[in-house]
């Protein structure tokens, strides 16, 4: 683990059961839990919150906080809904969204500048991960934090066998007025409706949220939306992304989530899902990137 003794802006604090890296930069405040390398807060001094964190979030070993940017890896969503290339090497009955978000990552690189901070955290295979997923890997998440959030999730096959993963950066966004939200960018794109027998459908116009939404949009999409006089833009190299809001009924079933939480958030999750899963030969890399701006 990198020594933060000489760091200008970074320190490690313990919140309940979790170690959190806190970055107090002249431009922003950020918090990243070492568990899951999960960015839980990014508050820009002029632009405000870029991500949403549940008011009921708990800092507990083994359970990902509800909010920020959970890293779903080496499978996304309900395991059984993944392609066979993913499910065939994993035991059944495992929870959604993989094990990476519940493992402790190490800080491996730090670069602090006037314009922002670049920090890398890494997860390598260990006895637990090998017990359920028999592959050697290095998963590195690099955050570039400044006037925007830029992330690279670098998959590296450090073993001698090929493996496949589905993955996503499961970002929770703050929404001041869910009734007026219009998410642009997906017009005419196909999507899989996870709430309607996983049927393939086509998006017409902006995405609006008036009920539970859980859709996998296909193709590279530049999402744009306005929330209370701020313009958000989300871009990624991924060719599959999920738009999700639990709405009223599902909100009551979620952990770490207030009954009315659906009114204050929505998720857009850039990833490699369904046919867009990635396969890596030994010594091969793949990078999933994401850029979130707010003006
Ligand atoms: O990406 C959408 C989704 O799969 C939803 O169906 C919901 O389960 C959400 O992720 C949150 O999952 P989690 O395991 O974090 O409660």
User: What's the overall average pLDDT, rounded?
Assistant: 97
The hetero molecules present are: 6-O-phosphono-beta-D-tagatofuranose
Would you tell me which CATH topology applies?
A: Beta-galactosidase, Chain A, domain 5
* Beta strands, count: 21
CATH class: Mainly Beta
Q: What is the helix/strand order?
A: EEEEEEHEEHEEEEEEEEEEHEEE
- How are the strands ordered across the major sheet? 6-12-19-18-15-13-14
Low-confidence stretches: none
**Class per helix and strand makeup:** mainly beta
What would you report as the Rg, rounded to the nearest angstrom? 18 Å
Structure commentary:
There is one protein chain. With 295 residues, this protein is mostly beta strands. 5% of the residues lie in helices and 43% in strands. A hairpin with a 3-residue loop joins strand 2 and strand 3. It contains 3 helices and 21 strands. It has helices at residues 84-87, 127-132, 247-251; strands at residues 10-15, 18-24, 28-33, 38-44, 48-49, 71-72, 106-112, 117-124, 137-145, 149-157, 163-165, 167-174, 190-193, 199-202, 213-218, 223-227, 230-236, 240-245, 265-272, 278-280, 285-294. The strands form 4 sheets. The chain has a 7-stranded antiparallel sheet, with no helix packed on it. It has a 7-stranded antiparallel sheet with strand order 7-8-9-10-21-17-16, with no helix packed on it. The relative contact order is 0.17. The protein has one domain (10-294): Distorted Sandwich (Beta-galactosidase, Chain A, domain 5). It binds 6-O-phosphono-beta-D-tagatofuranose. 6-O-phosphono-beta-D-tagatofuranose is lined by residues 77, 96-97, 214, 242, 244, 254, 269. 6-O-phosphono-beta-D-tagatofuranose (TA6) is lined by residues 77, 96-97, 214, 242, 244, 254, 269.
């Amino acid at each position: 683990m990198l020594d933060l003794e000489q760091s200008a802006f970074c320190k490690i604090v313990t919140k309940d059961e979790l170690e959190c890296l806190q970055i107090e930069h002249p431009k922003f405040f950020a918090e990243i839990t070492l568990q899951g390398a999960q960015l839980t807060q990014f508050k820009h001094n002029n632009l405000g919150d870029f991500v949403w964190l549940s008011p009921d979030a708990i800092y507990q070993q083994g359970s990902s906080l509800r909010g920020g940017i959970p890293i779903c890896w080496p499978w996304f969503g309900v395991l059984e809904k993944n392609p066979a290339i993913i499910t065939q090497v994993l035991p059944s009955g495992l929870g959604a969204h993989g094990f990476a978000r519940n493992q402790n990552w190490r800080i491996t690189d730090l670069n602090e500048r006037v314009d922002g901070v670049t920090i890398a955290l890494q997860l390598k295979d260990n006895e637990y991960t090998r017990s359920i997923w028999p592959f050697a890997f290095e998963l590195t998440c690099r955050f570039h934090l400044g006037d925007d959030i830029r992330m690279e999730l670098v998959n590296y096959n450090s073993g001698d066998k090929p493996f496949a993963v589905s993955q996503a950066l499961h970002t929770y966004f703050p929404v001041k007025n869910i009734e007026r939200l219009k998410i642009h960018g997906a017009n005419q794109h196909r999507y899989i409706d996870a709430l309607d027998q996983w049927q393939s459908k086509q998006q017409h116009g902006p995405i609006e949220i008036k009920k539970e939404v859980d859709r996998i949009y296909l193709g590279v999409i530049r999402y744009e939306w306005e929330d209370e006089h701020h313009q958000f833009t989300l871009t990624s190299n991924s060719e599959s992304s999920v738009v999700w809001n639990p709405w009223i009924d599902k909100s009551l079933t979620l952990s770490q989530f207030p009954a009315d939480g659906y009114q204050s958030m929505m998720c857009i999750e850039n990833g490699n899902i369904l046919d867009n899963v990635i396969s890596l030969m030994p010594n091969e890399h793949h990078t999933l990137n994401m850029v979130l701006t707010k003006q």
